[in-house]
Amino acid sequence: MFNFKIKYPSSSHKNFLESVYNFCEKNQLSLILKGSLANSVATKFSDIDLIVLGDINESQLDELIIYYDTPIMTNFTENPKGILILVYKDNISTDLDIRKSISEKELVDSIVLLKYDDNFIINNEEIIRKDITSKYMPNRPDYYKTMRLLHKGTTKYLSGKVDLGYKFLAEIKEKLITLDITDLEFENNFESDIEIIFNRLYTNFNLNVEIKALFDTLFKEFKR
């Protein structure tokens, strides 16, 4: 039974976490909650940091990715490599780290939601991630990776982490050069600059309307 003292910033956060919990319980996978939600400081824009331990194959991963809903955006982190990034239409986003082990240090300030002795392995020397693929996680072009940074930076900014938002913005502007976008005129203001960049990416790369709706919802928060 899912019964933990977690301070949810939205009903969507609660529904997503319960969905992943139910999947992991069904498949006997250990599940650990980390980050702002585990530490009761999450906002409605905060992502959900999860570690999953256990044997999970490609078909199970496909099922897990869409267990809550079909994500609008998917990608892998680059530093560190291999963590799944999933963003859903209600702007719930998760960093899903599928591992073979976890360290004692990582368990500090975390909540162990599910623990199975055969896969809850503590290893303080090396982080080993599961090398599995999914039909929902194709190789992404550079512009798509820039979109991922755009979403991450915007949600960090809206969560009150303004300095971190500007750090993402600076990284995004550097990546525009590799996309041959060098003619944009910026106002050196996070909210206006991020919308200018999104509008150009949306036009240049024919992004789908679901992604536009995702960002439009976030941009409306700028005007509140």
From TrEMBL:
InterPro entries cross-referenced by the UniProt entry: NT_sf, Polymerase_NTP_transf_dom
Polymerase nucleotidyl transferase domain span: 23-66
Gene Ontology molecular function, alphabetical: nucleotidyltransferase activity
Pfam family name, one: NTP_transf_2
Name by which UniProt lists this protein: DNA polymerase beta domain protein region
